[in-house]
Amino acid sequence: xxxxxxxxxxxxxxxxxxxxxxxxxxxxxxxxxxxxxxxxxxxxxxxxxxxxxxxxxxxxxxxxxxxxxxxxxxxxxxxxxxxxxxxxxxxxxxxxxxxxxxxxxxxxxxxxxxxxxxxxxxxxxxxxxxxxxxxxxxxxxxxxxxxxxxxxxxxxxxxxxxxxxxxxxxxxxxxxxxxxxxxxxxxxxxxxxxxxxxxxxxxxxxxxxxxxxxxxxxxxxxxxxxxxxxxxxxxxxxxxxxxxxxxxxxxxxxxxxxxxxxxxxxxxxxxxxxxxxxxxxxxxxx
Length: 286
Prior knowledge:
By secondary structure, the chain is mainly α. About 55% of the residues lie in helices and about 5% in strands.
């Protein structure tokens, strides 16, 4: 409607081949106006929030001089990294990664998540108990640097470095819990009926079952379905819906702590939200 480029800020939609389960815009939709930072990270690679920031700033340096863009997505880590920079957690060595991977195989993800909650409860609370990538990242940083992710983030915030070089307006939409569950159940069923099971089967056949984003909502549940841990497609839909609700709760908790976000009711204040966007864009031109 505004006719401006769309920049993705969803941590799963950046990956290639994860289409149905990540609810990516279709190729037809992406053909209507420019869509950037979708579908560009190849299989077996993982993207950190810091990686995302570098990619986003590179593209913004090309597009921002032409006019405004809309950044869309619910990944709090990515939004924070883009606007506020990223704290300095160094990359883990191959030896450290091997050690963590062995711990994961022997102890299991639940045990490692409990360890993370013990050493860094604030960081653990903000991620899913099945998010193996961030769990291993949090433990690895603590073991190698002696600091938690929360400590590094606070140190970074105190230094206030790498300020975001563009003016921005943060908008968020809220729905009543029952409405949200209804929408998520409808979306979960549509994904299953559109071929999500087949999408996951193809990824597993390509030896991608342990790829970090395969632990995300939708992909994790379908893998359990394929292993017989979830019995029917109806139960699969409900499992995806429940996981999506838990994710939405964590996202809401994350974004509500940010003081510079303007919240609007999705059902009753949609036009007001669009008006707020237009006013902001008009101010940029004046």
